[in-house]
Amino acid sequence: MIENLLSGFSAFGDPLVWLSLVFGSLVGYLIGAIPGLGPSLGVALLIPFTYGLDPVVSIVGLVALYAAAEYGGAITAILINSPGTSAAVATAWDGYPLSQQGKAGEALLVSIVTSGIGIFISALFLLFTAVPLSEFALRFGPGEYFALALVGLSLVVGLAEGSVVKGAVAMGIGLALATVGLDTQTGTPRFAASVELFEGLPLVPVLLGLYALSEVLFLVEEGVTAKIKSAPLGGWRTWNWKGLWSLNGVVFRSSVLGYIIGIIPGAGASIASFIAYAVAKKTSKTPERFGKGSIEGVAASEAANNAAVSGAMAPLLALGIPGSPTTAVMIGALMIQGIQPGPLLFSRNPEIPYTIFASLWIGVPVMVFIGLAGARAWAHVANIPGPAIAAIVAGISLVGAYASEGTMFPVYVMTAFGILGYLLRKVQVPLAPIILALVLGEMMETNFRRALITSHGSLEIFYTSPLTVALLLTAILAFALPAVGFIRKRRRAAMAADPSV
Amino acid sequence: MSFNLFKAARAFTAVASFSVVASLGSPVVAETAWKPSGPVNVVMHTKPGGTADIFIRTLAQSLEPMIGQPIVVVNAPGAGGATQMAHVSQAKPDGVTIGINTMSHFTSMLTNLKGTFSVDDFSWIASTQEDPIIYFVRTDSEIKSLSDLVAKAKASSGTINIGGFGPVGSMQHLGTAMLESAAGVKFNWVGFDSTPDIMTALLGGHVDVGVSNLGPTAPFFESKRIIGLGVLGEKRLNGLPDVPTFGEQGYKVDTSWVQVRGVFGPKDMPLELQQQIADAIHEAMKAKTYQDYARSTGVIDSWMGPKEYDAFVRDVSKIATKQLEAAGLLQ
User: Fold this and answer.
1) What is the Cα A50 distance to its own chain's centre?
2) With an 8 Å Cβ cutoff, are A344 and B219 in contact?
3) B148-184: buried (b, 16+ CB within 10 Å) or exposed (e) per residue?
4) Residue A197: which of B83, B262, B179 has the closest Cα?
5) Which domain of life is it from (chain A) (predicted)?
6) pTM beyond 0.95
7) pLDDT tens column, A93-125
8) Interface size between A and B, measured as CB pairs under 8 A
9) Interchain pair A203, B1: CB under 8 A
């Protein structure tokens, strides 16, 4: 293995490989930063450029692009509350409040450093565990996928600030919205008045509307307010090294979680970041700061969504099965090059997996360098006065929504959800559960029904697999514990109010 | 839903097109009469990475320099292909937006998309590939042949799970229904949205039998993770010479029921333009890159132009109607 790994690194003796790495990282960074675009689109766009290149050169560029694009989503999430992908939503929860407190520079610094470490740690795991863990991931059948989606949804309760009831209402809205579109089993249209809705509600415009446009409406309502004075990001001597080091536990846990969830085909970076965020909140000494500008929250989300990149590579390398939409496109890219990803990849084309390991590692410093250079410039965005930023964000949201499909329909969706987001925030209904339910709803429903088909209608499938049972118990606990706490609090409050009880 | 992002490719192709065309330099390419006015969007009904998806991405390599425009693959997956068909049907009939169709398109227009789309809503431009479906199991399965499968299905009264692409009424499901009626047994159909999902479920033991075309399964055959039970086709596949056909094993099914991949567009496309597109695509299929790929995945080249393909589509729809009626899926 060492020999193969060295040969993987030796590929970097070729300047063309370096060029591909830097080019891929830059393109990925920019594509990730534009709301409406994302890693899978970026990889697909780069494929035509790889036709004439050596497979090793092209795979290095594609991997670098994937990793950098998964990071890039954090930039707009932090600065203007516009997560361009669902994987960056959890980053916005704390990143944007930090930005409003004048700490945009610090948030960006933490996001890029933890993203880099997330990739570094997960790539190490990938090297040693890709094959066994991918085999393990095959145990995920429809029952397990349903249970996993339920675990993701159960986190809603832990994330909802304040009212559990309002959190539940938001989740209900999200689940209801997830049913829009063609039925995945029979092809029957549900709540789809026009053909544009056959695919279901498009996620990116919904995200842009709920988060970015509703923020614009608030900015407009507030008018000219006190200007945020964002502390500029100084040189490395001025950084809070102690603060960064104190994140080591969060970052390590989130990286491992992100890697493992990334391996499961169909789970992916957004679920990884949601779960890592919830775990970080549960294990934090200062959980009350989550959602109001916790550095730990940014670190958890970013380490996890980037670690999921390595995770998604595992089943691709070990079995030829894509772990994410982006790796699915990569399989196409490899096949066009005449390389068949599959169980024989390690023995037949060892240069490919080992170059991927090497490029993940070598790509980290390159990506962090680009990210840091960018962070210095981006941090000034937070200093732009309210009215101007409102206009800029509105513009970005409109263009981002249009670019996501190249038609006007998503622009209308974005506008509608902007107004809905504004109204919901007015009555303190949290937005996070809506997004979570919208992302997980389809996965949950499809797999629930598929599970019942494979079990011939018997519910047995949900309690005979140890993995399903463990996941379902986790979900039940996650649902129940906050609810119990809520009831207790009420009872205590009632007792305090009425001493006769 | 995230696959919709591919549609954004269009916004960026203006930049990409110049560089792609420039980077390919000046190798001698065949002149084609088809000169699209802009980047050509090829709308797919599958997620990226599936058989049809790899087909168009490979063909794009030789097609792009011929027509002088980049090919943008737009992935619009959705039950039975309706999402993609909506996309194609709403496009202008100028050849800039076309789609790749498979047998599933014809079956779904007769079942769950009946009333939404019909054969007459589209122009059927050209056929490109024929690709018989195969049935396979994990190497450690007790089932080793079609007769084993049929015997097991008889003993367990319809509880054998067969995982394949698409909902009930899809091309692969109807192939399975044909086997059911030929053997007098019942299977339990489990529909998936992509071939990688079927492979994951089969290798993980969540379904007993998998259905696919040869392409995506080839590495699993080679590494001996799966074994073939039978080929639904006229003869054995070159890429899988040891796996017998259904007929060889004594199960009489209509062997014209093979997967077909073709090109279609919105209706009212001028016949002359259709012919130009068909000629360009068939010319691009002769390129070495495409031929290497096609032979390695075991597909059979198909060369029907607009007139023949349109007639074929109407014929196959009749066969499909018969199959659906036989399977009790048409009221």
Assistant:
1) 27
2) yes
3) ebbebbeeeeeebbbbbbbbbbbbbbbbbbbbbebbe
4) B83
5) Bacteria
6) no
7) 999 999 888 888 889 999 999 999 999 999 999
8) 191
9) yes
A182–B80 C-beta distance less than 8 A: yes
Would you call B312 an interface residue with chain A, using a CB distance cutoff of 8 Å?
no
Containing B129, the helix (H) or strand (E) segment is strand B122-131
Q: Which of the residues in chain B have pLDDT under 70?
A: 1-31, 47-51, 77-80, 331
Collapsing DSSP states into helix, strand and coil, what is residue A348?
helix
- If asked whether residues B237 and B288 sit together in one domain, one would say no
Say how many domains are in chain B: 2
Side chain identity, residue A358: A
| B75 strand-pairing partners | B44
Q: Where are the domains of chain A?
A: 2-496
Amino acid identity of residue A154, one-letter, is S
Sign of CA dihedral A75, A81, A84, A87: positive
Given the structure tokens 């070159």, which residue do they identify?
B238
Where would I find the H helices in B111-205? 146-155, 171-183, 195-203
Question: Domain check: are B161 and B213 in the same one?
Answer: yes
CATH of the domain at B239: 3.40.190.10
Q: Virtual CA dihedral for B23, B27, B31, B37, nearest 10 degrees?
A: 0
CA distances from A239 to A234, A245, A368, A379, B140 (A): 7, 11, 15, 14, 58
Residue B18 lies in a domain: yes
**CB-nearest partner of B86 from A36, A45, A195:** A195
By the 8 A CB rule, do A273 and A89 touch? Answer: yes
Residue B15 shares a structural domain with residue B116: yes
- One-letter amino acid for residue A278 of the chain: A
Question: For residue B331, is it within any domain?
Answer: no
Q: Is the ipTM of this complex over 0.90?
A: no
User: Quick one: B6 and B127 in the same domain?
Assistant: yes
> Are B105 and B214 in a shared domain?
no
Pair B20, B121 in one domain: yes
CB of B270 within 8 Å of any CB in chain A? Answer: no
Residue position matching structure tokens 């145990």: A139
Whole-angstrom Cα Rg for chain B: 20
- For chain A, the average pLDDT equals 85
Query: What pLDDT does residue A405 have?
Result: 64
CB-nearest partner of B78 from A198, A266, A332: A198
- Asked if A140's CB is within 8 angstroms of B1's CB, the reply is no
User: Considering the domain boundaries, does residue B14 fall inside one?
Assistant: yes
SS3 state at B100: strand
Beta strands B122-131 and B259-266 are antiparallel
Q: Which of B229, B249, B269 is the last residue of a domain?
A: B249
Same domain, B89 and B168: no
Which residue is it, tokens 């450093």?
Answer: A113
In a domain, B288, yes or no: yes
Q: Are residues B137 and B243 in the same domain?
A: yes
Integer Cα distance of A275 and A207 in angstroms: 19
Digit-coded pLDDT (tens) for A310-337: 999 998 888 888 878 788 888 878 877 7
3-state secondary structure of B208: coil
Contacting B residues, span 280-309, partner chain A, CB-CB under 8 Å: 292-293, 296
Tell me the C-alpha to C-alpha distance, in Å, between residue A471 and each of A145, A277, A443, A465.
9, 18, 15, 10
Residue range of the domain that includes B167: 133-249
